C-alpha cells in the first residue's frame, strides 16, 4: 500500500470529509477521491460510505493499521538519517513542565564532555513529544503529568519497537493561587471543593481536563507553552492551576496549596527508542537523568 494513499485515507477519516481532507493536504478534492478509490481498488473493498462520509468496518480496521504503519515508516526514515548523519548531534523534546527535573545540569555535563555537540531543544505538548520520539524526530523525550504517587503516566501504548518510558522525577502537586488569595492560608485543599472556582485551561502546559476530578470549569484558556506565562496568569488572579511545587515556589506572587484529595504528584518520564547506540549523546543524557542520586 502506498504511504501517500494511506495519509490521504487517514485525513478523510479524521476530518469526516473529502473536501476538508483536501484542504488539510493541499490537494484538490478530485485527487483525494482518486487516492481513496485507488486504495479501495487495491484492497478490494469500500473503506468509506459516501453520504454521509463514514468509515466502513473494513475502513475501521485499516485505520488502526495505517496509523502504526505511518509512524513506523517515519521512524525508519529517521533511524537511517541518524545513521549517516555527522556525529555529535542531540535533539531533545520536552513538555513545558518537564524542565522541572535537572535537565539543564545534565545537558551542561555532556556538552562539557563534547565541545562540538550540536544540541537542539524542542518544547511542545505531551502528545506531540510522544509522537516525535516514536518517529525519530527527537532523540529523547521528557514528558510530564499529574498522577497518583508512584503511578506511571498514561501514555499511548508503544507497540513493538516503539519508545519506552522510565520515571526520572516526582515532586508534590499543588494548587497554585495568588499569594493574597483566601485559599493561600489553607494547609490543604480537595480538588472537588474547587468545582465553583475558575481555572486556567492550558492544554499544552497543565491541562486541567487530565485531572482526576469532574466539574472544573475554565475562566481563561492559555494556548502557549511558556510555563512562566501560565504562572503569571495565576498570580494575576485569572484562575487556578495545578502545578509542580518547585515552579510555584520560584514565583514570588504565588502560593502552593497542597492537594488533599485525590493524592497527586507531578511526574516526569523519559522516552526513548530502544535502538539508541550506547555511545550516542542521547544515551549519555538518558544515563545522567536516570542514574540514582
From TrEMBL:
The keyword Transcription appears for this protein: yes
Keyword Transcription included in the entry's annotation: yes
Keywords in alphabetical order: DNA-binding, Transcription, Transcription regulation
Short name of any one Pfam family annotated for the protein: HTH_1
Domain HTH lysR-type, chain residue ranges per copy: 1-56
UniProt similarity note: Belongs to the LysR transcriptional regulatory family.
PANTHER family: HTH-TYPE TRANSCRIPTIONAL REGULATOR, HTH-TYPE TRANSCRIPTIONAL REGULATOR CYSL
Protein name: LysR family transcriptional regulator
Organism: Paractinoplanes rhizophilus
Taxonomic placement: Bacteria, Bacillati, Actinomycetota, Actinomycetes, Micromonosporales
Amino acid at each position: 500500500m502506498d504511504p501517500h494513499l494511506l495519509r490521504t485515507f487517514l485525513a478523510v477519516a479524521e476530518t469526516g470529509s473529502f473536501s476538508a481532507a483536501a484542504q488539510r493536504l493541499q490537494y484538490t478534492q478530485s485527487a483525494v477521491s482518486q487516492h481513496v478509490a485507488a486504495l479501495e481498488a487495491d484492497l478490494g473493498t469500500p473503506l468509506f460510505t459516501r453520504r454521509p462520509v463514514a468509515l466502513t468496518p473494513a475502513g475501521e480496521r485499516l485505520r488502526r493499521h495505517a496509523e502504526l504503519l505511518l509512524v513506523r515508516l517515519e521512524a525508519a526514515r529517521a533511524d537511517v538519517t541518524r545513521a549517516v548523519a555527522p556525529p555529535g548531534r542531540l535533539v531533545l523534546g520536552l513538555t513545558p513542565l518537564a524542565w522541572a527535573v535537572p535537565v539543564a545540569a545534565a545537558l551542561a555535563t555532556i556538552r562539557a564532555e563534547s565541545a562540538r555537540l550540536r544540541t537542539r531543544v524542542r518544547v511542545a505538548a505531551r502528545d506531540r513529544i510522544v509522537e516525535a520520539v516514536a518517529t525519530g524526530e527527537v532523540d529523547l523525550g521528557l514528558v510530564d503529568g499529574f498522577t497518583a504517587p508512584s503511578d506511571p503516566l498514561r501514555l499511548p501504548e508503544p507497540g513493538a519497537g516503539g519508545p519506552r518510558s522510565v520515571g526520572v522525577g516526582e515532586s508534590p502537586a499543588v494548587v497554585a493561587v495568588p499569594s493574597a488569595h483566601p485559599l493561600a492560608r489553607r494547609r490543604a485543599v480537595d480538588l472537588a471543593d474547587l468545582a465553583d472556582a475558575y481555572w486556567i485551561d492550558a492544554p499544552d502546559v497543565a491541562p486541567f481536563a487530565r485531572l482526576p476530578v469532574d466539574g472544573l470549569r475554565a475562566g481563561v484558556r492559555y494556548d502557549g507553552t511558556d510555563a512562566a506565562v501560565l504562572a503569571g496568569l495565576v498570580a494575576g488572579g485569572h484562575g487556578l492551576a495545578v502545578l509542580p511545587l518547585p515552579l510555584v515556589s520560584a514565583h514570588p506572587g504565588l502560593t502552593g496549596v497542597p492537594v488533599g484529595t485525590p493524592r497527586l504528584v507531578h511526574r516526569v518520564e523519559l522516552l526513548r527508542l530502544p535502538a539508541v547506540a550506547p555511545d550516542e549523546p542521547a544515551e549519555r543524557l538518558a544515563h545522567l537523568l536516570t542514574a540514582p542520586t
